[in-house]
Each structure stands twice: as structure tokens, then as C-alpha cells.
Amino acid sequence: MAKNKKNTKFLTKSIHTGNRIDETGAAVTPLHLTSTFRQPSFSSSEQFVYSRTGGPTIDALEENFAMLEDAKFSFAFASGMAAMSAIFLMFKPGDHVLISQNVYGGVFRLVTKVLNDNGVDFDFIDTTNLNIIKDSIRNNTKLIHLETPSNPLLEIADISSVSKLCKPKNILVSVDNTFMSPCGQKPLNLGADIVMHSTTKYIGGHSDILSGALMVNDKSSAEKITLIQNTAGALPSPFDAWLLLRSVKTLSLRVERHFSNAMIIANWLKNHKKVTRVIYPGLKDHPQHAIAKKQQKNPEGKSVFGGIISFELNSAVNVNKFAKKLNFITLAESLGGVKTLISCPYSMTHASVPKKEKEKLGITKNLLRLSVGIEDVEDLISELDLAINH
Ligand SMILES: Cc1ncc(COP(=O)(O)O)c(C=O)c1O
Question: Does CATH number 3.90.1150.10 belong to domain 252-388?
Fold first, then answer.
């Protein structure tokens, strides 16, 4: 395609970037299912050599991914956790890493069960509090990893203030942007160094692909990630890359509906007699509502608050009976797909977090996480109401 003009809008770019038309004239990027590529001679190669290093479908996807986050470089991975692992592999024994305390349970497991003996020191801290971050920084701190909004308590870290604090100290800031998607938050533009996505979620959008992504501007981080991505072998399959290129074309439209449905449902839950707590950054009583309003913007510059709501049912409601009454709303892990999903973080996504830690964080047995889909919002509300009043 023709080079993007500077003023081309996000919606147009998300459809056309990486949409390469080959000599057949096919209107959609072709899918190249091959593990290896013919070389012209024993001593020379062309653009692609072997599919673990890259191929035409992955390359097209990475061009699109870079555009999504206004990044110079982007990397596709086989899962969000593979992308997360690549970030941590950038550091060496003796380095110190700070992580949001209320992080996705899989990241907690990666750090405490897999990487704990590898010589990098990790500390989980409250990244909503700048003073706690300041006090936790050591001489050997090399990275602060923020999950904002966090999973499942939707705590917000101030990306630009944390980045301003870290830049003079040469500490990298990485942001898990899975919950907002690039249509709701652009961490690199707020000063962060690395953006991570579980593209399994909003970017894939249909609960049918497992994949991840990293986006960076800095050449030296890009070189490290290139080596890790190629060497550790965690690229997605070309088929998943092709599906992602398809998904991304409707990302803006889907996300707009996810977010507007979530705002309506959060306000409805707030007024429900049997709901004791509603956590949604769009509600004025959310402790970091003002930061969310400032940093979470859609491509038109309007504040947006995400498609995830966590809410707690009062003790009179039996959560298992509640779950049995659900019909369209599916009880399942994951989020960000067109279908509404509900989960109980205590026993599902955060099962690996020790009981004491969960209690400290406020992840109770009656706390449910709703990933609001793009169904008709009235149907979702009437189903929730029926289930709560079972
Ligand atoms: C915020 C967040 N980050 C990372 C991940 C891990 O992504 P994946 O399941 O694609 O490996 C998840 C998965 O639920 C998540 O919710």
C-alpha cells in the first residue's frame, strides 16, 4: 500500500497497515504457511530464512502492531506470557525489577515459581503510589512493570509520572496494556519504554486466538527482544498472525462498544441492592478515576474507561447459583472477546496467588470479574439481574 500519510486516522490505519497486496492481487494479506524459505545459494539468503525468525505473515502483523502503539518496532509472540517472559529475559543476575502488586496471576507465577532462582530480584509493590515506587527503587533497579488497569482490581498507575521518575535513573518502564487496548491507552506516548499486550484479548477479540505482542521505540531494547524472540522460539503461527490481521480491522469498533456497554453496566450494578462493591475506573468513586480520565484516551482523544468491571455480590447471594442462571454470559477465564465472559479471580485467574496475599489485596470469593462483550446491553443487564436474584 501507499505510505501512510502523517494525518491518516487510526481507524483507517488499523485496516490498511500490513495489508499487503501481492502479485495475485488478493485484497487481503496472503497467509504463508511454510516453516522454511528457499535460499538463492549456500552462502546467501533473502528476506526470510526460517519461520521461527520471521515470515511474510508475521512481518505484516508486526508492521500493524507497531502502528497500533505508535511504536518504531514491534514483536509478535505466541501468547501474552511469552511476551512477558521476553521482557524479563532482557535482565541479568543482580538486576532488580519492580512489578505492580495486583498483577495478572500468571505473571505472579512466572516470577515466583520460574524466575525466582535466576538471579534477578523482583519486588511486588503498590504502583498506584509514587512515594512507594520512589522508596522501592534501588541502585540496581532496571525495570518497573506496570499493569494498568490491573487485573482484577482495576488499579490505575500514573504512566507519565512513573516514566518521569524513571527516565533520569535509566530505569525502563514497561506497561501491560492488555486491559485498555491501543484504542484506550498509548503508554509509549505517555513516556513508557515497552508496551506489552496479551493480544489473546481485545486485539484478537473473538476468544479464538492465543498470542502476545511487545512494542518499543528504543533500538537497544529492540535488538535485545529480537534476539530473545528468535532464540527462545515463541512466535505465533502464521495462521494466528493472519487471524490477528483480520481482527485488528474491527478493533476500534469493537472496543468502542465494549467500553460503552461497560459504563452502562457499571452504573446499573452500582445501584443494585445485592452488589456491595463495584470497581470500574469510569465511576467517580474509583480511587484513581482522575488519572484514568487523564491517561486513558480513545483515538479521538476522549476519556475511556475499559470493558472490564469487577463487582462483589453480597454474602446472601450464592455465587454458584448465580453462575448457573447465566445464559449468554459465559463462565470462563480470559477477557476482551465479543462474547461477555465472567470469572471468579479468587479461584480462577488468581488461584496461584496465596490466600493471604489475595485477602490483603481484597480479592474475595464473592468478587467477580465481568468482561463486557458487545452484545445488546439490555440483554446483558436482564441476564445479570435474573442471576443475582436467582
Ligand atoms: C493483563 C494480562 N496480562 C497478561 C496475560 C497473559 O496473556 P496470555 O494468556 O495471552 O498468555 C493475561 C491473561 O489473562 C492478562 O489478563
Answer: yes
